[in-house]
Amino acid sequence: MRTFDFAPLHRATVGFDQIADLMDRALTNDVSQSSYPPYNIEKTAADAYRISIAVAGFSEADLSVEVKENALVVSGRKAGDDAERSYLHRGIATRAFERRFTLADHVRVSGASHEDGMLHIDLQREIPEALKPRRIQISGSKAIESQVETAKQVN
Questions:
Q1: Same domain (yes/no): 9, 52
Q2: Judgement on whether residues 26 and 43 belong to the same structural domain of the protein
Q3: C-alpha torsion angle, residues 63, 30, 90, 64 (rounded to 10)
Q4: Which of 6, 66, 87, 105 has the largest count of CB atoms under 10 Å?
C-alpha cells in the first residue's frame, strides 16, 4: 500500500487543518476493521441523517451511544448469560462491538431508538446564524453622499 506524506500540505495551508486531518484519518484507516455490526447511513431531509445499526440480540440496556468531541461512539456489550446455554449452531453474533462515526461540524445527535433489532440514531445539522449566508444591501452613490453630508452637519 502506498503511503502519503501530508507535511507539505500542513505547511502550505492555513486554517485547513480539518481537511488534512480528515485525509490522514481516511488513508490510515485500518483495512482489517470489522464489518460487525452492519449499518446504513441515510439522508432523511436536507439537513437530517439517520444511522441504522443491526443489533439483533442486544437489548437497550446492552447498548451505549455517546458523543465525544466530533465522534459518535456506539458500543454494545451482551451480559454473560450464554454460559448456561448449549448451542448446536450459533449464527447470531452477539459479541461486543464498538463503532465510531466522525461527525461534521455543527452536527448533533437528536435522538436514538431501538426497535425490531435495529438501533436508529438521528442526526441533525444545525448551522449557527453567524455562519448562514446573509444578504448585504447595496446602496447607491447618492446615499453615501447624503450620509457624508449628515456626518458633516453633526460635526
A1: no
A2: no
A3: 0
A4: 6
Nearest alpha carbon to residue 50 among 69, 72, 25, 76: 72
Indicate whether 86 belongs to any domain: no
pLDDT tens digits, 66-118:
998 888 999 999 876 666 778 888 888 788 999 999 898 889 999 999 999 99
- Distance from C-alpha of 105 to C-alpha of 27, rounded to nearest angstrom: 20
Same structural domain for residues 52 and 26? no
Q: 66: part of which helix (H) or strand (E)?
A: strand 63-68
Residue with cell 447595496: 138
Burial 75-95 (b: 16+ CB within 10 A, else e): ebebeeeeeeeeeeeeeeebe
Instruction: State pTM to two decimals.
Output: 0.66
Q: Which residues of 12-37 are buried (b: 16+ CB within 10 A; e: fewer)?
A: eeeeeeeeeeeeeeeeeeeeeeeeeb
- What confidence tens digit (pLDDT) does each residue in 17-56 have? 566 666 666 666 655 567 889 999 999 998 899 999 999 8
Task: Tell me the residue range of the domain where 66 lies.
Answer: 38-80+91-129
